[in-house]
Amino acid sequence: MLWSGLALLAMLACGPAGAAPAHIDDNLAQARLAGKGSYTWFGLTIYEAELWVGEKGYRADLPFVLDLRYARKLDGAKIAEASAEQMEKIGAGSVAQRAQWLARMKTIFPDVKEGTHLSGVFVPGGGARFYLDGKALASVPEPEFACAFFGIWLDPATSARSLRSALLKDAAPR
């Protein structure tokens, strides 16, 4: 009886299993987890990624949230540089745009440690909003930047194809 009481208290404290964190619910009506996966580099897990979508699922003209929970300490400038490199690999933006985006990302992305959450909200036609551990971090009101940034994970040309497949696993409309 004690264990079931403790389990009930844990559920009440944490909310229902699979419920979206508050900052995701605030940005995405009827949020649901579409998929999740890990990004590894030479066998080391860098982060766990989750894609949250609304009732209409994932489409490039609908809002969604990508949440990354870091598995290790990383420098924010290095995160920005890796993001710009991946944007280039998928063919997003011009050289000048990517240089501007890199400068902007270096001002946005903080150093992270194990357990840090960085969330990005895709706002169709309105750019991107970023959150650090559920708290507002920055907005980039540039649609081309948002498409390039989220393309790192969701563009068919991504270098992380298995992660893309895992994120889109249950992204169809319901």
Automatic annotation (TrEMBL):
Database matches in InterPro entries: Chalcone_isomerase, Chalcone_isomerase_3-sand
Domain Chalcone isomerase, residue spans: 35-168
Signal peptide per UniProt: 1-19
Pfam families: Chalcone_3
Keywords, in A-Z order: Isomerase, Signal
Gene3D superfamilies attached to this UniProt entry: 3.50.70.10
GO molecular function: isomerase activity
Protein name per UniProt: Chalcone isomerase family protein
Annotated organism of origin: Massilia antarctica
